[in-house]
Amino acid sequence: MLWLIEELESIRRFLGMGGDVLMMLFVLTLLLWVLVIERYLYFFTEYPKLIKKTMADWDARADKLSWNAKKIRLAMISEVSLSVNRGMPMIKTLIALCPLLGLLGTVVGMVSVFDVLAVTGTGSPRAMASGISKATIPTMAGMVAALSGLYFSALLEKRANRATHQVSDSLQH
After folding, report:
1. Residue 126 DSSP code
2. Cα-based distances in Å from 156 to 55, 123, 130, 164
3. Could you report the per-residue pLDDT of 41-81, keeping only the tens digit for each?
4. Residues 143, 88: Cα–Cα separation, whole Å
5. What's the pTM?
6. What gap in Å lies between CA 106 and CA 130, rounded to an integer?
7. What is the mean pLDDT of the chain?
8. Mind telling me which InterPro entries this protein's record contains (predicted)?
9. Per-residue pLDDT tens for 158-169?
10. What is the DSSP string of 40-72?
11. How many CA atoms lie within 13 A of 54 on its CB side?
């Protein structure tokens, strides 16, 4: 239990060094990972049920060759595609926002550095250190969050495309 308290304290210190922008980035990254985990849970729990239902609905049809049947097949494939891609635009948007928020942290930190310079009138490194940390830490955190999210987003997108093609191939004409 003591190690958990120590870890939470180190996270709190890290967030404090980066300023308010790092806290916003933390919330954004948390939301990103909630959405990514939700998509993975979907593929392990709901997706197999959807495939079984779609295949059963298609197999229950007597007519599979008419123009209407082909359009119904396309509609079924589209429903599966929409279902497996749900949430992906939001994930991609959050990934794009992470580095931008990190750059905002850079700007806020540099403004803090210039405030210190304006007040003290000297280039004291000790006085500028907190502003420099507020400038660099959010940038690093934004890039790390975006890169890790980008990797898992690409895996999810590949999985969604594979699922759509699998359904398309499985529904016989």
Report:
1. H
2. 22, 49, 39, 12
3. 999 999 999 999 999 988 888 888 889 888 989 999 999 99
4. 19
5. 0.82
6. 12
7. 87
8. ExbB/TolQ_transport (IPR050790), MotA_ExbB_proton_chnl (IPR002898)
9. 999 999 999 988
10. HHHHHHHHHHHHHHHHHHHHH-S--SSHHHHHH
11. 26
